[in-house]
Amino acid sequence: MIGGLIGGLYWLWATMPSLWSDEGELRAPAISAESARIVRYDDHGKKLWELKGRSLTVQEDVSVGEEVTLRFFDSEGGEVLVVWAPQARLHNRTGDIELLGEISAVGREFSFVTRDLIWDNSKKLLKTESSVRIEREEFVLTGEGLEYLAETGRATILRDARLILRKP
User: Fold this and answer.
1) What is the pLDDT of residues 25-50, one digit of tens each?
2) CA distances to 26, 60, 94, 152, 161 from 77, in Å
């Protein structure tokens, strides 16, 4: 009985992947998952955002998602903005997110398209320096750069804003 237990423990130890390099340093193993999800909460336990990806690779400092959907929530837990991107890089310690590629987003009152968007978790700010096109039922707004405050739902074009009113 004890011999079987010791043999089982040895087998478990021998088949585990090595977590240490040859120099004895700890190595963080990468974890990959298909159809994965990461949720970030504030200090009061309210959901800030949820990142879902077709695939997700988690390492110690950075997690990389492919074909991602990033949902933002208000203080009551309601969804305020949904963003789609080909790739996302989540900085695990800070909660900052880089969305890479052609980005599209839909909010409660508008939608927009841009390229390469950054979520600054400490400021609760979504921003880009790229060209932006914002659409609402009554207008189209284009320009360079965007800041979106998740707490207020307010989007601001930073430079060269052009407004096109739609006919009623």
Assistant:
1) 445 557 777 888 888 888 888 888 99
2) 39, 29, 21, 14, 32
DSSP 17: P
The residue segments making up the domain with residue 123 are 33-165
pLDDT over threshold 80, residue 93: yes
Let me know if residue 147 belongs to a domain. yes
How far the first Cα of the chain sits from its last, in Å, is 83
> What's the pTM?
0.77
Query: What's the structural domain count of the chain?
Result: 1
Closest CA to 84 of 100, 64, 103: 103
CATH number, position 103: 2.60.450.10
**Residue 72 within a domain:** yes
